[in-house]
Structure formats: C-alpha cells, structure tokens
Specification:
The complex is a heterodimer of chains A (240) and B (241). Chain A has 240 residues and is an all-alpha fold. Chain A is built from eleven helices and no strands. Chain A has one domain: MetI-like fold (Orthogonal Bundle). Classes of the chains: A mainly alpha (240), B mainly alpha (241).
Chain lengths: 240, 241
C-alpha cells in the first residue's frame, strides 16, 4: 500500500519503483556496462599501439598527444552529435565517442609509464639476452603497469559517467532512464538511475584497483619500504 | 559528406543566427553562463585550495574531490537539480551544477601546485623572516601559478561542456541548437550546433593556454631556468641576493 503511494506521490526514494521496474533497471544497467566495457577495451587496444608508435618515432609524439587532447576538449553532447551522421542512430555513436575520450587518457598514461622505466632495468634485460618484444612484455610493461592502470581507472570512471549522455541517441544505458524521467518528471526513476550510475563507477574503480594489486605484487612491498623510510626519517628528526 | 555540407548550409543561413533561438542569442547565453559560473567557482575554490596547500592540510579532500567529481554524471546532477525544488528558480539549477563541476579541478590543482613548491625554497623564505602571508603571496603563489592556471583552464572547459548539457533539461546555451535539431530530426542543425560547441570549447582552451603563458609572473625566469638550472633549482633571485 505504502509502496504504491510513493509512486503516486512522485517521491524521490521509492521501493515500489525499484520492485516494479526491476527488469527495466537491469536492462539499462547491462546496456550501460557493455557500452562502457566495449569502449574502454577498444580504447586500450588502440591506445597501446599509438603509444608505442609515439615512443619509437619521436616526431609522431607531438601530433598524437595534441590530437587526442583536442578530442578530449570537445564536449560529450557535441561529440555524439558530430558522430551521428557517420553511424546514424546506433550504439556505435556512443561507443566511438567514448573510445576517443579514453584514448587521450590511455595514450598519455601508457607513454608516461613506459618513459618512467629505469634505463638500468632495460640494460639489464638486454644484457640477459632479451629481444625487443620480450623486453617490452617481460620488463617494460610490467614496470609501466601502475601508470597504465591509473589511466585505465580514470578512463573507465569517466566512461561510466559520460555514457549517460548517450541517451540523446537512445543508447545511454541508465542515462536513458534519467532522460525519460526528466521528460515525465519521474523523480524516483531519475534518482535511482543516477545512484546506480555512481555505484557502477565506484565498483569499476575498486575492481580495477584490485586487478592492479594482483598484477603488481611488488609495489606493495615498495610502499611498505617507503613508509618504513618515512617513519625512520621522522624518528631521526624527533631525536634531533 | 552530406552532413558536413548540410551543416555548412545551415550555418551560412543568416536567419539561423538571429532571434531568440538564433546562434547569437544562444552563444550569448553560453558565454554568460560560462563567465558567471567560472567566476563563482574560482571565488570559492581558489582561496580554499591555496589556503589548504599553504597549510598543508586537507590533502585527502582536495585530491579526492576530483575523483568524486569524475564518478558523478553531470547529466544526472543537472536533471536532479531541475527536478528538485530549486528547479522553480530559472537558471539557478544550471548555475549550481556548473559551479559544482568546476570546483574539483580548481581545488585539486591549486592544492597540488602549492604543495609542489620546493620545500627548500619555502624554508629559506621563512628563514629570511617572511610571514605566512608574504610567503604565500611572494613565493608559493608565483611558483604554483602554472598549475593553478591549468586548474582554471580545465574548469573553464568543463563549464563549457556542462553548459552544453544544460540544454537537455531545458537550460539555455548552444546545446539548445543540438537538442532542437534532435527534436526536429534535423541532422544538419545537430551537426552545425555540435561544430559551434566544439569550436567554442577549443577556443576557450586555447585562450586559457595563451592567458596562462602571458600572465605567468615567472615567465622570463622559467625560460631562463630551462637553459641554466642551478644545482638546487632555486630561482635566481634567492641565490644572488
């Protein structure tokens, strides 16, 4: 009884809404997830070779970074609108837009991560007879992983949030529900969809953080060493 | 290519630029929103970020607010504010949303800029007997300037982008050209509006890059320092005097 009342009263928080529209919410969440996931995955696949090209062939670095920065400056609504005539009304509009946004962050971070690999580590690997491919995948990439993962987390969280704007072409995942709710002034729908969106972003961020911890067990040791050093220094200062 | 020529024809039609739904009026609204909201958010976030950076406190807040700002969809906040009781007050929901999303980059960059000032320089300025205020105004602020301006530039681009989205729940600005185009299934207008928005965003970005280069209080020194960095990286003023 009280449940239907909250629908009639157009309350912000309404359990009855979540119960009666659970199918709609699940579908929107799934669409949100696959659009975000596909975009970031494609972005990563494209960013990796671009970063390698920019590193190997110096003159390309400026234009690659400059072009991706220009893309990043274009507001999302304009980006989707500009892609509309290319793909028509389809999910490709949103996915392509998000891929272009994630490229900026990913190329920059992969490049920064690879640049930060100590020359000594490279020399040592070469001395051990590592070829260029084994050097890249066995030494450089693992050492660049924290920077790459940091970029991946930023790109993913941004993509979760920007997917909502895809509602303009009908492929915005939870954004579709926000858009509908906006037009029908349906408060519970807007608030519920927005909240799920934020939860998705936080969950994706934590998931990637966990993946990073698993992939780079050595950094945990280093953080401890750093903390231990800091404590030692502080102790010394206190002694003085 | 049809879309590009369609958009060009749309833009070349004088009638589309005049009147209440015309480009000039929407551009005026967009610029007005951008300037007002950027000014409000700078007035709130910069003093706070500089003070926190100067005191070295509240770092967790200053840095995490940027991560939080990224996780919250701008579109959702705009719609939530319009549906809230605030929605009755004309442009206020839009202005509040724009300010909310401009604050994180300003605060984070101001804080990080202040914290990244060389500690040795700060120590020597204190040793010279500078008060906290003098230290902030004469040492920390000039050295942190580039990062502070990066924050202002990011915030300005963010405001332009968010102001575009404000058209979805019925706010003003260039985004209205895009939404009106969608409502009329007029792809030419959608693309023309999107082009105008993209050009505006790029111009704002470029203008702030130029502004930060021209107004950098250490612009001559930074250039000189790049050529001859002294051992501690101290600006020449403190080494020679």
């Amino acid at each position: 009884m009280a449940g239907s009342d909250c629908l009639a009263a157009n309350d912000w928080i309404c359990g009855e809404y979540v119960r009666s529209r659970s199918q709609e919410l699940t579908d929107a969440t799934l669409q949100h997830l696959w659009i975000t996931g596909a975009s970031v995955a494609i972005g990563l696949l494209l960013a990796f070779p671009l970063a390698l090209v920019a590193r190997r062939w110096r003159p390309a670095a400026g234009p690659v970074l400059g072009f991706t920065t220009v893309l990043y400056t274009v507001p999302s609504l304009a980006m989707y609108s500009l892609l509309l005539p290319v793909f028509g009304v389809s999910a490709a509009v949103v996915v392509t837009g998000l891929v272009l946004y994630s490229l900026t962050i990913l190329v920059r971070n992969i490049l920064a991560g690879l640049e930060a690999v100590p020359e000594d580590a490279r020399e040592a690997a070469r001395g051990m007879g590592y070829g260029p491919l084994r050097l890249l995948f066995g030494v450089e990439l693992p050492l660049a992983l924290p920077a790459v993962m940091a970029g991946l987390r930023i790109a993913t969280v941004s993509a979760v949030s920007l997917t909502t704007v895809g509602a303009i072409v009908g492929y915005g995942g939870l954004g579709n529900l926000i858009y509908e709710g906006m037009n029908s002034l349906f408060k519970a729908q807007v608030l519920t969809a927005s909240a799920i969106c934020v939860v998705l972003a936080i969950a994706a961020d934590l998931l990637l953080l966990g993946v990073q911890r698993l992939l780079t067990p050595w950094t945990r040791g280093r953080t401890n060493a750093r903390a231990a050093r800091r404590i030692r220094i502080r102790a010394r200062k206190a002694a003085v | 290519m049809g879309a590009v020529s369609g958009a060009w024809t749309w833009l070349a039609t004088g009638a589309h630029w005049a009147g209440g739904d015309g480009v000039w009026h929407r551009l005026g609204e967009h610029l007005y929103l951008t300037v007002v909201c950027l000014a409000i958010s700078c007035a709130i976030a910069l003093p706070l970020g500089l003070l926190l950076g100067h005191l070295g406190r509240g770092g967790a807040l200053a840095i995490n607010i940027s991560n939080a700002g990224r996780a919250v969809p701008t579109f959702a906040v705009l719609v939530l504010l319009v549906l809230s009781p605030l929605g009755r007050y004309g442009q206020w929901p839009t202005i509040i949303a724009l300010v909310l999303f401009a604050i994180p980059p300003l605060l984070t960059n101001a804080y990080v800029g202040m914290r990244e000032v060389d500690r040795d320089v700060v120590e020597s300025a204190r040793g010279m007997g500078m008060t906290g205020g003098q230290l902030l105004a004469r040492v920390e602020l000039p050295l942190a300037f580039p990062l502070i301006m990066t924050g202002v530039r990011t915030a300005a681009v963010q405001v332009v982008a968010t102001a575009t989205l404000a058209a979805l729940p019925g706010g003003g600005g260039l985004g209205r050209l895009i939404t009106a185009g969608f409502n009329r299934y007029d792809t030419a207008q959608v693309v023309a509006g999107a082009l105008l928005v993209a050009v505006l965003a790029l111009l704002v970005e470029g203008a702030f890059v130029a502004l930060s280069r021209l107004t950098d209080p250490l612009r001559h020194r930074r250039r000189a320092r790049r050529q001859s960095v002294n051992s501690r990286g101290l600006p020449k003023r403190w080494v020679t005097e």
